[in-house]
Amino acid sequence: MAVDVTGASACYRDNRETLLASIICGGKTDAMFRKMTGVKSHEFIHVLDTEITLSDCNCNCDNDNTAHKFVDREISVSCIQVNDKICKDAFDGMYKEAEIRANAGSDIGSAGDILAESFAMQIAKANENLKWKGDTTSSDENLNKANGIVKIMTDDTDVVKGTIAEALFTSDPNQALATLEALIPESALCRGENTREGALPFIAVPQEIFRTLRRALALETATSCCKFTSEKWNGLDSFLLHDTDIRVISVAALNGTDRIVIGSMHDLYMATDGENDYEDIQGWWDPKCRSWYQLATFKVGFQIAFPEDMVLVTITT
What we know:
alpha+beta; 9 helices
């Protein structure tokens, strides 16, 4: 072959844990989710369903352990495998490009490191769509591996359902935001009080809706004394509703769903194992087939902790 891949396979093996972490937690919206590890198949979400009780100090340990337990919500993980084959000519070009980047001082490292990281990030991108759009009944091979947030909320009768007209985002963006804000359950707002920002309420909108809102609000700001500021939150385009801690977030993975997800970041969960040899990532050259092979196996699953705090809004035309 035209390139020397000596040591490239070792880059996958030596960076196994880092690469698997990139696969599971490398999506754009991962900061919105709480993580659970060590999930082999399914188990209850690790959040208590009752409030802590403060009491006087005494020597008696008479707590009723049965009264304080995890929420009655299970999260399941699916076993997923990704096989990738790159023919010789394509691999020669990819590897040479990676070598140029490495020699130019890439922070990632060698050409083998760059190939492995690229493979991991491609899978993370697919997982990002699975996280929101996943549906085990779908005919799409990339989406039928697990149920994502939209499907979970659609099927859950405890989730609040609402609708909003698409035209309202252009004709009256402030009224559109007021309509969405009014749908947020009081329990979701209260759950975020006196806690870190990760538990605060959010309105996740498709990227195209976010852009429509941003353009309309920016234009309104330019012709009035109102102030509108769009900002990055953990790498995501977002802005805060005026005089609130409710964050409107652009989620590209919601594009094409005609859905808006509202809730508290305390509610979104993703799970993996992370403790099993089943989860692996490899890369190797096959001289007989004259091809480079990449293989990744991992577990992932999604769930919401408090469905009564969540709102699924359908965008109507």
